[in-house]
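Before a computer can learn anything about folding, someone has to put a protein's shape into writing. The outcome of that step, for a single protein, is printed below:
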Amino acid sequence: MSNKKDVSFSSGRYDAMKIKKIISLKNMVLATSAVLSMPALAVINNSETIIDNGAAVTVPGSQSSPWTLPGALYVGMSGTGTLTVNSGAVVSSGTDNTADTSGSVLGYDSGSNGTVIVDGGTWYDGVDAANNSLTSGTTAVGGSGTGNLQIKNGGKVALVFLNIGQNGSGNGTVTVDGAGSQLLATATSTSGITVGTNGTGVLNITNGGSAIGNVLTYIGLDSNATGTVNVSGAGSTFTVADGIIVGANGTGTMNIADGGKVTSGGGSIAGGSGSNPAGGTGTVHIDGSGSLWDIGNSILSIGSAGTGNGTLIVSNQGTLTAGRSVDVNAANGRVVIGGLPGSAPVAAGILNTPTLNLLNSNSSLILNHSDTSGNYIFSPVINGSGNVSSLNGTTVFNTVNTYTGTTTIDGGTVVVGDATHPGAVLNGASAGDVTVSANGTLSGTGMVNGMVVNTGRVAAFNTLAGNNTAANSNLTLEGGMTNGGVIDLAGSTPGNTLTVGKTYIGNNGTIVLNTWLGGDSSPTDKVILDNAQASGTTNLLIKHAGGNGAQTRNGILLVDAQNGSTTAADAFTLSPSSDGYRQGKGTIAAGAYDYRLARGGNGGNAQSWYLTSLLNTPAGKSDPAAKSDPTGATYPGQPGATGGQRALRAETGSYIDNIRAANTLFSMTLHDRLGETQYLDDLSGGKEKATSLWLRNIGGHNRSDSGNGQIATQANRYVMQLGGDLADWSSDGQDRYLFGVMGGYANQHSNSVSNVSGYNSKGTLSGYSAGVYGTWYANDALKQGLYVDSWALYNWFNNSVTGEGLPTENYKSDGFTASVETGYTHKTGEYQTLNGMTNEVFIQPQAQLTWMGVTANRHTEQNGTVVESTGDNNLQTRLGVRAFIKGRSKLDENTQRVFEPFVEANWIYNTSAYGVNMDGVNSQVAGTRNIGELKAGVEGKMTNQTTFWLNVAQQIGGKGYSDTQGMLGIKHSF
């Protein structure tokens, strides 16, 4: 069938097999609703082919030769058209240079809709089967209407030039889906594939599909254009021999995800085009493991001549490879690792290039990823005048960077040099400020230029999670620092340092230091000022890393002013959050010592700051702590130390007095317990009554010194003891045995004051005792001669010590005490009073041995100090004599009342002095080895059943030791 005029197929289905001759037409038009199935190929010479007005053409794979269209193919000219090329079918269009070779169009006019589905078949448009260009035609998907090209199931489309979304109203989509499916643009000049020429274009390469171009690819070419390329799935590839420009003058986006790969000979984001280099808006997002954009040994340019809005995002192990560099030229150009600002952080991607050049002062590298392990290393060297911003994640910089812009750490952690890269440098010598915000952390082992403005955290490398086993290191802030946040140097062991140059300004910030609290050479974290001036206010928070406390000379160096550095007199203070801090006092309690922070220490560098247990001694006063230690130990600077006193803690006095009281509160003599030993019950005819109940009450005051005279302690006590005789008997009719039980309650409150530091400590003790006693009298009838008394008690107490400014320490003590006493009562004479009353005079020598075995539990204070009592198993001996008169006045002549005034003198000797060991430092109560005691009082019988005793006693020891006591006792016999 031959015709020089247009041929139209009306509605219905037409089979080319029933057309016996070759169709040779000028133009072939499928009318509305026409469906043409062509198992045998028709050749249309020198004509255009238009599929429009609802027509659908299916080219099955059963034809023996290609369907060849010499001219252009229009699918959806002004209406809707569909062309399907099935598996095995081949369609060739634009094959004749003399025909209309302007190029095929899918969706020609505005409002039209053209679709070509290459379902396993092949479509050549302007090229032959060998992929040789036959024409210069441009295939447009979405000319001014809507175009859709689908390549699937191994289908192949080869063309010369491809515009997707060609004109302003054009909207085109090309999808290459599945393994073996391919799009090929064979152009060798200008641009091969343009996605979004002046309209809206989308290129999808999915599930192993591929697209290939020989020359430049534009995504968003003209200013009104919007182009998007999506390459997703393992095996999906987009290969361009020349460069890819994303957002040339319009808006371009390229998404590479889930293992998709793009390979090009170069790349530009928001890079302009041709004679218009202004640049549009371009975004490239490479996301997912295996996802890659590889531009070879080229430069990826973001922005052109300072214009354009270009963004490169790499996330979730997605990779950008640029063999030479990534250059960010645009003022709004940025490279994003992880997620965009304002979005949730995601895993980091990889920027595989030797250099990142931030060439515009407003360009930036943004870190917003979720890797907090410390394993994400940003390897490119950063140069230029741009800025770096961290929003989330831990990023390690191990290179020597030279960029001069600002650094902002609003979140996440920036590590400048890990454990093996101490030579790393964050930024250039003339860099802008490094701002560490409240949620940010700056760390590392390298160097930071620019002024660090910290309201967050600057931390030693081994303080970071997962790095606790790393060696101690130094971080250098060469450009100086303003600290309104926290500097944390307290790693697993002391020894980290922070070096600050130029200027250090404290803005009520804190420096956390791990310090071994011992002598001058104790290991500690440290701040080093290198030719810097320190001012403002900074709190030093000391964490007790160990150490028993010790006497210092200069002190433990915490802030080391080197190379002409100066510090203001109030630049540093102790933080109240320090371990062992005395609230309101500004010192630290450690072991047996108090430490204070001192500028210049004691004879050290006048501009450095030390932690010292040596207090400045006022002029004209001696140093009581310079006396020799009772253990014979010597300490640095002692004797001969100049400048101060070594300050023992006032709490030593409280601990000592608690253990002293625990062993002595319930200690007693026979007369303390029973008053006069025997009275007759006249109401029962002279028969002695052994069954009785007695009660004694004691109040006392004690004074003592400890700690080489530094600590003065005063204590007040009360004791109440109750007991009774349960049985009595005689072995020969002359002697007498008594047996009884007793129990008691006691409490004591003490106050210890350091005459070196002026601090005080309060101790309390309260507890109980229970035990038995037994007495033997040799001559019961005459109430004279030998006696032996013994008792044993179990004692238990609750103890507390509250140092000034320190939390209360609570602990327990318990143990046994026992005594054996003997004496001899001898009547020396008698005399008559003026009233004719007879008074007898007696003398009674006494000897007593008391074992004191109450001990305190080993206690660890809240600041870590280990406290142990000393002086256990003290044996106290007492030798004394008692003189008394037994008689009555004229007023009592016809009554049962008898009174015995007495006076007693004793020498008391202790084999051990009570004391305390605080982290290895021993202190003891002074002056208790030998004690003299005077006691005076009266004992008497009010009735045959009731007796009483009342006395006062005064003890005097050495070195200021004294004890005053008053006692009142009463006994009732049954």
Summary: Residues 651-664 form the longest helix (14 residues). The radius of gyration is 51 Å.
